[in-house]
Amino acid sequence: MTTLTANCPECDATLTLIDVVVGEIVVCPDCGVDLEVTSLDPVTVEVAPMEQEDWGE
């Protein structure tokens, strides 16, 4: 089990990330924003892009 830490770019809370992979979406426990793991060395997270709804267009 690999435990990593990062800071939320929205509220600066410390995130404890366990066995994450690049591209994984995690939720900040303090502000609730969805974050995407963008790198593991060093560990970085960014606000996840909002998915656009596809209305069949």
Structure write-up:
By secondary structure, this protein is an all-beta fold. It has a single domain (3-47), classed as Rubrerythrin, domain 2, CATH 2.20.28.160. It has no helices and five strands. The chain has strands spanning 3-7, 14-18, 25-27, 34-40, 43-47. The protein has a three-stranded antiparallel sheet with strand order 3-4-5, with no helix packed on it. The protein has a two-stranded antiparallel ribbon with strand order 1-2. Strand 1 (3-7) and strand 2 form a beta hairpin. The radius of gyration is 13 Å and the shape is globular. The relative contact order is 0.26. The mean pLDDT is 91.
Overview in brief:
It contains no helices and 5 strands.
Structurally, the number of domains stands at 1
Envelope shape: globular
% residues in beta strands: 35-45%
Assembly type of the chains comes to single chain
Level-1 CATH class name? Mainly Beta
Mean pLDDT: 91
CATH topology term: Rubrerythrin, domain 2
Helix content: under 10%
Write down the secondary-structure element order: EEEEE
Strand order of the largest sheet: 3-4-5
Largest sheet: 3 strands, antiparallel
Q: First CA to last CA: what distance? A: 43 Å
What is the level-2 CATH architecture name? Answer: Single Sheet
Low-confidence stretches: none
Summing up helix and strand content along with how strands pair, one would put the structural category as mainly beta
User: What is the radius of gyration computed over CA atoms, rounded to a whole number of angstroms?
Assistant: 13 Å
